[in-house]
């Protein structure tokens, strides 16, 4: 039994941005996490009621599938070299993750339009 399950999921340069192969467009096919990461979150939630999901991404990700089940969801953006330390300080209660996000985050696909 774990006191806390921390999952860091999200996107990288192969999922979004200028590094998408030519002629493949520039948009992601979905606003959800990649399928293998959706499964990882679902598996963790099936065995623990104390799951924190950290999302590393340069863009919004829909979280409706696990928003009501996770204890917390933290959007990290692409935090750089000190991102791990910042996340540890948040989880340890040394800092309060507050502030304003640069964009609105939809709860469901219908909220996006």
Helix content: 10-25%
Distance between the termini: 41 Å
Biggest beta-sheet profile: 3 strands, parallel
Secondary-structure element pattern, one letter each: EHEEHH
Structural class: alpha/beta
Please name the CATH architecture. 3-Layer(aba) Sandwich
Strand order of the largest sheet: 1-2-3
Would you identify the CATH H-level superfamily?
Glycoside hydrolase family 3 C-terminal domain
Shape, please?
globular
Tell me the number of structural domains: 1
Spans of 5+ residues with little confidence (pLDDT < 50)? Answer: none
Radius of gyration: 15 Å
Strand content: 15-25%
Number of strands: 3
Q: According to CATH, what is the topology? A: Rossmann fold
- According to CATH, what is the class? Alpha Beta
Report mean pLDDT, rounded to a whole number. Answer: 86
Number of helices: 3
EC number: 3.2.1.21
Pfam families: Glyco_hydro_3_C
Enzyme class: hydrolase
Domain Glycoside hydrolase family 3 C-terminal: 1-110
């Amino acid at each position: 039994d774990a006191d806390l399950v921390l999952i860091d999921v999200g996107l990288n340069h192969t999922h979004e941005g200028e590094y998408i192969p030519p002629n493949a467009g520039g948009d992601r096919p979905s606003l959800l996490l990649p399928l293998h990461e959706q499964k990882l979150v679902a598996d963790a939630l099936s065995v623990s009621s104390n799951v924190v999901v950290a999302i590393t991404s340069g863009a919004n990700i829909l979280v409706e599938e696990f928003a009501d089940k996770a204890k917390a969801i933290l959007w990290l953006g692409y935090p750089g070299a000190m991102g791990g330390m910042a996340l540890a300080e948040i989880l340890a209660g040394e800092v309060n993750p507050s502030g304003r996000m640069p964009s609105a985050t939809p709860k469901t696909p219908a909220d996006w339009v």
